[in-house]
Structures are given as structure tokens and as C-alpha cells.
Amino acid sequence: MARERAFINATIHTVDARDTVAEAILIRDERIALVGTTQQVLAAAGQSCVIADAAGKTIVPGFIDPHYHLGYAMLEPVSVDCAIRPGDTIDDVLEAISRATRELPPGQWMRGFGFSPWALPGEREPSLAELDEAAPNNPFFLQDESCHRGWANSAALAEVGIDEYSPQPWGGTVVKDHAGRPTGALLEAAVNPLQTRSWLDMASADWEATRALLTRKMRELAGLGITGLCDAAVTPDIADFYARADREGSFLFTVQQLHTADDFFGKQDPRRPDFVQRVHERESDRLRSGTMKIFADPGFPDGPLISCSHGGVHSHRGNSWYSAAEVKEIVRTADSLGIRTAIHAMGNWAVDAVLDSYEAVRRGDLTSEGLMRIEHAFVSAPQTQGPRMAELGVDLVAMPGLIHHTGPAFDAGWRGEFRDELTVIPIRSLIDAGVRVSFASDGPTGPVAPAHLMWGAVTRASLTGQPIDPHEAVTAAQALRCSTINAAHAADRGDEAGSLEAGKRANLAVLDRDILRCAPDEIREMLVLETVVDGRTIFECDEAPRPAVLG
Ligand SMILES: [Zn+2]
């Protein structure tokens, strides 16, 4: 017999095509059976239905984060938190590293996360000598909060074979001093061996412990109302780990893998049989595959790929990982193999190059219908790029959670003098142009809570007190759409998740407030009371009152 449960007397934002607001929802096994009035649901419910009176609480579709780094974020509890708090100096960071590594067996790897030199006076980076002193007996790798650079101590550099004779790697820089010796700082693809080695060492030591870390992180995300995500950089090692974890039933909700090359920032070649096999194999209900990730423009050392002219001044700056022809060839090859693509592009020039590639594939002999995503578009030109994206049916995965903290740096540092030509994290103008925009956290790079992402998109508030491009603000209803149904489409799950409609999976979040009616600043304070995935509660808040169970 079917297992039934229902929520009645709620404010339900269904996020269906007409933004219907309903009162009650009936769930049969893992699917939604009916959305309607309390009366309709009570009439349709069977004898054994478990009915919860939501007493006016708000219910929304479970949030989906289409760009998150689960495979790395899950290691946070066993890594050193190196985020900078007000008043911190480099000594506080070094002291934290020293405390965390002191008790470790010699030779065991340790990672630090969340570090941001820009938050320290003088943009202070740790030196090799400082890291050696803080972690004398262990390979240590400190990651920048952007994940696009890092700092290693001498033991870590030695473990991966980086020394004064090392050539510069494809797509990255091993920073060296005037004598040619590595300083410990590594930019972009130069972090690859450190990422891969430290991950393997920390994640493969104890299977059960690592599996528990995965479950713990997913439970934490469920507490934010998240019921699905895309891991935006799945390496072969992470794919192997996920496959085994999935076989053992460790996934609380569905994860879509965006497959990178051999390493986080590795050079992608979709013709490689082992890559094609990895992308096409191992699909299950909870662990999805079929999408490839590549990076178009790096952030370091010169910022994203920007091309602009204004008042007779032409500026082309930044670098690219691939030539435009290479991007086109990668997208074409992937598409011909039935592989979807998600391409990281930050600056307007990179976005143009990606759009050219997508256009060639959509309009060329393949006329592909497949999902094509652009990630970020941090500093871009929505007035020309929005209509192109809309026409080509390209999904934009935006990161409004970064507006508050990183927005001012994108504004002053990256956009600079092209204030009239370029927009920082455009959203509203793209939606108006007809682009399907979804919201992602890029966590652990940015704040992870969907409440924070929606608040950022609605207020455009920044830490300077000045909103960033306030004309790009969206309504709360638009923000909810971007974090639910649009995100489901970006995860290629629009037909089964992202809205509350009969026949879809029963994935929902019960909230302590109506985020479509509260003051914009209160969206950020939103508390998730209960999270349901496939009809089952995977999170309940023990701090706040939750719906009373009636029957
Ligand atoms: Zn990312």
C-alpha cells in the first residue's frame, strides 16, 4: 500500500508555470499526488495518511544548488578553517595551522580552506618559511577562498615534485622568486597536483570516516533546504569515491556530476575514451552523470578575460585557458558524444567566446538541443549577451551570494573603468532578455545558504554599504524561481524536480516565513524547519516550532 503524508493549512509557493499559490499538498510514496486546497487534500487522502497542520507556514520546492563543490567541501571538518575574521592577522592563520598539524602523524597531509589575503592588511600572503614553521612535519596545502590559487609548504611541494627545475604547467603558474625557487604560491592549474594529492591522502585513509563526512555535509545542506545539487568539479578520484558511496546508499539527495579532466583545472579532452566512459557510466537515481565542465578564463594572475572600449580607450585583458577554436572543438566533440557542457566564463570576452562555440554547435550541422550552461559571467555585457543567450537557449548559472563580499572587488578590480559597458553579476537584465537564470553558491567559495543567495539577488547589498548595480535586483518571486525550477533545469532535472506539481518528486522545504512577502532584508534570516526529499523528511529543525502532526 502507498505511504501517504500531507501538509495542510500552508502557504505553498508551487513555482509552477503560473506561480500558483496553494494551501495543501498530498504526497504518495516519493511523488506529489495533489496540490490544492486543504479541503481537496483531505478528501483525497487515504485512512493512513499522516497529516501535518502547517498552521500558515510557508512551503516551497526544495532548493537545488546547480554549482557546488561537494567533493571538496565535505573535507572541511577535517581541514583547517583559515577564513579571516575582523581583526585577524597572518599570525592567527599560522597559529590555526600549527594547532591542526601538531598532533598529526608526520607525513600526513593537511589542507586549509577559506583563506583570503585581500581581507588582511596589505593583502598579506603566507611565505614558504612561515608555512614550514607552522607545519614542520606535514605536507600542508592552503587554499584561497576562490579555490583558484593556493600556498604549499616545502613538504607538500616535495611530495608533488615541484622545485626550481619544474616547468610552468599548462594553465597555471608556479610562482618563483628572483633566484628561481618556488615561493609556495600556486596559481590556477598549478594547484592541480596539490589538490589531487591532498584530497586522495585525506579521503582515502579511512573509508567509513570519509563516507560519514559526505553524509554529514549533505545533512548540513539539507538543513538549508537544499534537496539536490551539481558538483561542479568531479575528478576521476571523486567520481570513484561517489560511485562507491552511492552503491552503499550514502546520498541523501540527487547529485549531478560535472566532470572535469584528470584534475580540478586539468586540460579537457572529451575524445579520450576513459573520459567518455566516466561521463556515461555509473548513472543512478541519486548519482547522475552526463555533463562535462571546462574553464574558459582564469582569475589569476591577471583577472578574467575582458574586452572593452570606451571613449577611444580599448582594453583587452586577462588570459584564457583555451583558444576560441579549442573551446569550439571541445563543445562540438562533447555534443556529438551526447555529453552536456557547463563552461566557467567570468569576463565578457570569455562569455562571448563560449557563446560563439555554443552558437556553432546549436546552428551547425549538429543543431544540438542539449543542455548548455555558462557558469558565473561575473563581469559581462548583458545588453548584448542576454539576447544571444536567450536565443541560443543557454542556461546561465549565476552566483548572487558573492555580491556582498566579492562584488566590490569585481566592481573596482575587474570592471574598473568600464562601468557603463560591463555589469557585475547581471541577473535582472538577463531574465528580462528571456534567459533561464539559476542561482548557485559555488560553495565553499561563497556563502551556501539559498536564503543568502536570494537575499543577495533581491537587495544587491555589499559590504561597502553601496549596493552593486542595483538595477540588476530581482523580485523575491524571481529569486525563488532561480533557486528552484530554473536550478532544476540547469541540473537537467526540470521534469522531475524544482516545482510542486502532481507527478513530480516530493522535494520541499518548510520555512519559518513567507520569503515572497517579508522585508527583503529578512530573506537572509529565513530558517528552514523541515526538508523533505522523495517524500521522506531528511532534516528537521530542533530550534523552531514545526508543523504539528495530526494523524
Ligand atoms: Zn565553482
Total helical segments: 17
Q: What is the average per-residue confidence, as pLDDT, rounded to a whole number?
A: 95
Ligand list = zinc ion
Helix % is 25-40%
CATH fold name of the largest domain = TIM Barrel
| Overall strand count | 28
- The N- to C-terminal Cα distance equals 17 Å
- The CATH homologous superfamily of the largest domain is termed Metal-dependent hydrolases
Structural class label: alpha/beta
Instruction: Report the major sheet.
Output: 9 strands, mixed
Shape: globular
Unreliable residue stretches: none
Which terms summarize this structure?
single chain, 551 residues, alpha/beta, Urease, subunit C, domain 1, Diaminopimelate Epimerase, Chain A, domain 1, TIM Barrel, 3 domains, nine-stranded mixed sheet, 30% helix, binds zinc ion
Can you tell me about this structure?
It contains 17 helices and 28 strands. The protein has 3 domains: 4-62 and 505-549, Urease, subunit C, domain 1 (Roll); 74-199, Roll (Diaminopimelate Epimerase, Chain A, domain 1), CATH 3.10.310.70; 296-485, Alpha-Beta Barrel (TIM Barrel). The model has no long low-confidence stretch (mean pLDDT 95). It is 30% helix and 26% strand. Strand 20, helix 11 and strand 21 form a beta-alpha-beta unit. Helix 3 (90-102) runs parallel beside helix 4 and helix 15 runs antiparallel to helix 16 (476-483). Strands 8, 15, 16, 17, 20, 21, 22, 23 and 24 form a 9-stranded mixed β-sheet that branches. It is an alpha/beta fold. The protein binds zinc ion (ZN). Residues 67, 69, 232, 442, 445 line the site of zinc ion.
